[in-house]
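Backbone-to-sequence.
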């Protein structure tokens, strides 16, 4: 789907972009963070065609899709931050002796070796120091460690880079949700918050208290389960039947959501909304039951009396009637994330219905742009910009510049020599011209001298012919 983005005049340097790449859809949010909150400058949501996920070169195809999203939304020249989740992501708390940051990576791997099922030598690790404690005269660090298979991160980065983007960071979904919550709510000490992210394939639930992610669980049920339960044949009045396929079921789900108990409406096919409600209810009850079990397990495991807040996010939350159903069946203070309604500046071009439907699904992307992966960043070092890498990239350009400078200096030297010789030749031409002017004047004394010499010779001849002028020897 394509949604119109608001047009706001904001300095480009202040913007950041969160890119949430999922199996069902891709969400991107460009926003500006301010002291009072944030506002959305551009956004885009696109469903991923199932055919793309079955291709070997799906990274390139997804990259092309994202590139078009950025082009259509007119998002340019902004840092991009990515999220990652799944069974290849390990999030755990640890208390380790204080040590240099470069040693914490190996220490975190060693501490988690019993829980990690993949090769730790091919994993990316990042740690967030939440605080320090003193025990028996020694200092210990309270860590939040995230360990991810490196090839999983490589795949996510390859998608972004094939779209022409340069990721600045990769973090995990609960951190993005946590960053978003911090941007819109004041965190009270000792408050236990549960973040529920209802995606298409799965629902993930996280528990956070005093800046620590204490527990997480994945429920294998999501928006697709609600779509699947609507697929099939319906018996209508008058002996007629209606067959709903998966595509139409998705449309019905987004249009009507979870209908109210007394809703007498019908779909275009004539299917009563009461039947839609009947089909959806078992799936929703199962999902809520799993949420309640997760909450009870957390309270028992971590000796907490209660969970104070339940924050809902994800595409499933935006369905009509979903919030009311969860609120009626979970004895908790429940709130919804909606980037449109919680932004400092709201977009008047979007209807309230679209805000409610699509706002919650953009929560992770908005959290990425707000947090900028400042707590956890598992982007491998090989993808991060550095002075050394910049110098290596600039080396060919620098060599060309040096060669050009040398050629320019030599050319300047030659041009200087030519100019000097031209000036000398010009001076000599001027001197020659002066000599040519003076030459006739210089010839007069020479002619006079020659005339005198000729006169002398004539006088000598005349003298020799005079009497007594002949010399005689002694």
């Amino acid at each position: 789907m394509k949604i119109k983005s608001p047009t706001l005049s904001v300095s480009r340097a202040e913007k950041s972009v969160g890119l949430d790449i999922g199996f069902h859809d891709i969400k991107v949010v460009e926003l500006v963070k301010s002291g009072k909150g944030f506002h959305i400058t551009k956004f885009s949501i696109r469903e991923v065609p199932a055919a793309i996920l079955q291709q070997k070169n799906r990274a390139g195809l997804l990259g092309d899709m994202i590139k078009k999203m950025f082009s259509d939304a007119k998002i340019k020249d902004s840092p991009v931050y990515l999220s990652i989740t799944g069974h290849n992501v390990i999030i755990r708390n640890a208390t380790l002796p204080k040590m240099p940051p470069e040693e914490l990576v190996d220490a975190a791997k060693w501490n988690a070796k019993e829980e990690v099922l993949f090769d730790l030598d091919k994993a990316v690790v990042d740690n967030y120091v939440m605080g320090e404690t003193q025990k028996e005269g020694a200092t210990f660090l309270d860590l939040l460690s995230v360990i991810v298979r490196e090839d999983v991160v490589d795949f996510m980065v390859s998608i972004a880079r094939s779209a022409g983007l340069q990721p600045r960071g990769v973090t995990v979904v609960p951190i993005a949700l946590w960053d978003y919550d911090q941007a819109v709510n004041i965190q009270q000490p000792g408050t236990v918050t549960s973040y529920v992210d209802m995606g298409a394939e799965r629902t993930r639930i996280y528990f956070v208290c005093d800046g620590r992610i204490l527990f997480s669980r994945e429920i294998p049920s999501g928006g697709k389960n609600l779509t699947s339960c609507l697929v099939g044949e319906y018996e209508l009045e008058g002996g007629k039947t209606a067959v709903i396929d998966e595509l139409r079921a998705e449309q019905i789900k987004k249009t009507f959501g979870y209908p109210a108990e007394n809703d007498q409406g019908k779909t275009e096919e004539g299917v009563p909304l009461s039947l839609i409600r009947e089909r959806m209810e078992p799936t929703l009850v199962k999902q809520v039951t799993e949420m309640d079990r997760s909450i009870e397990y957390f309270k028992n495991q971590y000796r907490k009396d209660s969970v104070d807040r339940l924050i809902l996010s994800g595409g499933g939350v935006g369905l009509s009637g979903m919030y009311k159903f969860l609120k009626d069946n979970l004895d908790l203070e429940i709130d919804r994330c909606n980037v449109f309604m919680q932004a400092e500046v709201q977009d008047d071009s979007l209807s309230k219905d679209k805000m409610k439907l699509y706002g919650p699904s953009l929560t992770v992307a908005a959290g990425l742009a707000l947090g900028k992966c400042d707590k956890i960043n598992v982007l491998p070092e090989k993808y991060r910009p550095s002075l050394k890498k910049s110098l290596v990239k600039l080396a060919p350009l620098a060599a060309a510049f040096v060669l050009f400078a040398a050629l320019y200096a030599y050319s300047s030297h030659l041009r200087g020599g030519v100019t000097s010789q031209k000036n000398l030749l010009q001076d000599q031409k001027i001197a020659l011209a002066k000599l040519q002017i003076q030459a006739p004047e210089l010839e007069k004394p020479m002619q006079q001298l020659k005339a005198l010499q000729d006169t002398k010779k004539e006088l000598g001849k005349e003298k020799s012919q005079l009497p007594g002028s002949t010399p005689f020897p002694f």
